[in-house]
Design brief:
The chain has 623 residues and is an alpha/beta fold. It is 41% helix and 12% strand. Helix 2 packs across helix 6 and helix 8 crosses helix 19. The relative contact order is 0.09.
Length: 623
């Protein structure tokens, strides 16, 4: 079972993996799949006579993830009270200025949908029903699980997924007696072991991480430190998803994509856990399939499903893939369109290989252009290095998704002033989706160590219209927490938000192109067609042209001077300093207080108006 709000255009990786896993480990068992998110989109399309479409599914289920609207849609069904949470959400929406019209329209259909799902599932006469839950899949899954148990108390209901990791899984179990077992952590070892106990009628005391009922007591087995080896992670089986999508009236509204997994965990997080990030939960240890195996799985999926759009859910690409997997993809002849999450310090050659392999959309975790903020995050990069990545993505026609994060304990207005002043010069590069104050996430260093600055915390306000539970239970159940605001605020915060809005407004019509000139004593031409600046062409010769070329890789001022004099250019420190200041004023460089990087691109990519899959949806898939 994968209930709303699984992204409609993507198969559930969790279902694909578990189906393949059970087929391999328990061939005597029969597996059925229920793609509840797809069914929900179909149901809404029919009941609303076409007014509630898959695009609205995204608006409520992904875009509103930090307002809990998707969970709220099903909360009245869970608590058997159509009015439950309505007044609370209305008050919340008024305070926050949140649009809730689509969610309210959907909520009117939620009870009938759950009843229809229950009847259809029980018609298959299942022994076990397993729900996979990530982000806003909890309440829809719980509502259906409760209805199934009311109709057939003997049915075994199992929950798993990212929403069940660590203390969240135990809280979900002990507060919902109709949930028989909860698998916490990775399921490849625990789930087949649980099925074995269910078949034998024995107590599952030895299944690591499992929550189960011992009479009226909720037991939580100790979680294992053992992670699933890459060789034990099966290739996903999407056959039944494909059949369901092909037969669905929703198919004409979506662009289906295949979901693949090459690695789990985060190799950077093992060394330097980004302070705000909780996405890896309890399984930070990095493991990756061999590149040849990953390519074989993708090749087989593409041939089987005749789809070329690929979403890799790895939280960070395995760097060995630049030696094996990506060259195989580049040489395959497939016209792939892949999404990948990467670190933001890839070289231009590595980005070029990604593009040749078929990557069209990357998420490099840029997060900020301020050295101080990046240091507070423990990102291991600088502001100028992130700007270089934005520029090189344009050079290789890679769509780059990122968010500008702020609100870190220890940051100050001085950390942002220079950055904000320079943002208009970046208008030709891809802007962030938005600028957002960070929220405290479970499993992040900020959460685990209150001394980092978030000592005061409580479950996020949105959960008040999602769950009818006391705060002490919510503190174990939920993923997001509210804290007093840290870092910048007031006028500096508003300047940052306005600068990002202006970046978006001017980006589509802006370019800053560098051209190698021929003859007439001119070495470089830089054609400035950026929004908000006079359109002009800059002519560079001699050491100035050489300096701009060197700064494509980013350099400190002393390092640049050494390079130029090493090249034989007669340039003084004073002349270089004056030129750097002039180039900054012209918006040809970015300076992060340590080093400079050049801003002109060598390619002007075609810009399409069709939006990419939003970041919240990708995080939902990855989770």
């Amino acid at each position: 079972m994968s209930m709303p709000w699984q992204t409609v255009e993507l198969p559930s990786l969790q279902i694909g993996l578990l189906h393949a896993l059970v087929a391999r480990t328990r061939p005597q068992d029969e597996v059925r799949e229920f793609h509840g998110a797809l069914r929900w989109a179909e149901f809404l399309l029919e009941r609303s006579q076409g007014l509630l479409r898959p695009g609205d599914h995204v608006a409520v289920g992904s875009d509103a993830i930090f307002d809990g609207l998707g969970d709220w849609v099903f909360s009245g069904v869970l608590y058997e009270d159509p009015a439950w949470g309505v007044a609370a959400l209305d008050a919340y929406a008024r305070r926050r200025g949140t649009a809730i019209d689509k969610a309210s329209a959907m909520r009117a259909h939620a009870e009938d949908f759950v009843r229809q799902c229950a009847a259809e599932i029980l018609a298959d006469d299942p022994d076990v029903v397993g729900f996979t839950s990530t982000f806003m899949q909890n309440v829809s899954s719980l509502a259906l699980a409760a209805e199934l148990k009311r109709r057939r108390p003997s049915l075994t209901v199992v929950f798993g997924g990212s929403n069940c990791d660590g203390p969240m899984g135990h809280a979900l179990h002990r507060n919902h007696p109709f949930v028989d077992q909860v698998v916490r952590g990775e399921g490849e070892y625990a789930f087949p072991a649980l099925l074995g106990h269910l078949a034998a009628g024995t107590r599952p005391e030895n299944v690591p991480g499992l929550c189960w009922w011992d009479g009226t007591v909720s037991r939580a087995n100790e979680e294992s430190r053992r992670t699933v080896a890459p060789g034990d992670i099966p290739a996903p089986d999407y056959d039944l998803w494909q059949s369901a999508l092909d037969a669905s009236p929703v198919a004409e509204f979506v662009h289906p994509k295949l979901v693949v997994e090459g690695a789990r965990g985060c190799w950077w997080g093992e060394k330097h856990h980004c302070t705000f990030c909780g996405l890896n939960g309890s399984a930070m240890a990095f493991r990756a399939k061999p590149g040849e195996q990953l390519w074989a799985e993708i090749d087989q999926l593409v041939r089987r499903h005749r789809l070329l759009d690929i979403v890799a859910v790895d939280n960070i690409i395995d760097m060995s893939y630049f030696k094996d997997f990506l060259p195989l993809a580049a040489d395959s002849g497939w016209d792939l369109r892949m999404h990948y999450e990467v670190k933001s310090n890839l070289s231009s050659d590595q980005l070029a290989l990604l593009a040749r392999a078929g990557a069209v959309h990357i998420q490099p975790g840029i997060e900020s252009l301020s050295n101080r903020a990046l240091d507070l995050m423990d990102k291991g990069v600088t502001g100028s290095r992130n700007v270089r990545t934005l520029r090189d993505c344009a050079n290789h026609s890679l769509t780059c998704s990122w968010n500008y994060l702020y609100g870190f304990p220890g940051e100050s207005a001085e950390d942002y002033t220079s950055v904000i002043d320079q943002l208009p010069a970046l208008v030709h590069l891809q802007p962030p989706a938005g600028a957002s104050r960070i929220q405290l996430e479970r499993f992040s260093p900020h959460f685990a160590n209150p001394a980092l600055g978030f000592e005061e915390r409580r479950p996020a306000e949105m959960y008040g219209h999602v769950y009818d539970l006391p705060e002490a239970e919510l503190a174990d159940l939920v993923y997001l927490f509210d804290t007093p605001p840290a870092g910048i605020g007031g006028a500096v915060e508003e300047r940052l938000l306005e600068a990002v809005r202006a970046w978006h407004a001017g980006h589509a019509t802006s370019s800053l192109l560098i051209e190698e000139a021929e003859g007439d004593g001119v070495d470089l031409l830089v054609h400035d067609r950026r929004h908000g600046r006079p359109h002009r062409t800059h002519l560079l010769t001699g050491w100035e042209a050489a300096a701009l070329r060197h700064l494509e890789a980013g350099r400190t001022e002393p390092a640049l001077l050494r390079l130029l004099t090493g090249d034989g250019h007669a340039v003084s420190a004073g002349d270089l300093g004056a030129w750097l200041q002039q180039a900054l004023e012209l918006g040809l460089l970015y300076f992060d207080t340590r080093s400079y990087v050049s801003l002109p691109t060598r390619n002007e990519p075609v810009r399409l108006t069709e939006p990419a899959l939003d970041q919240a949806a990708f995080e939902e898939v990855a989770g």
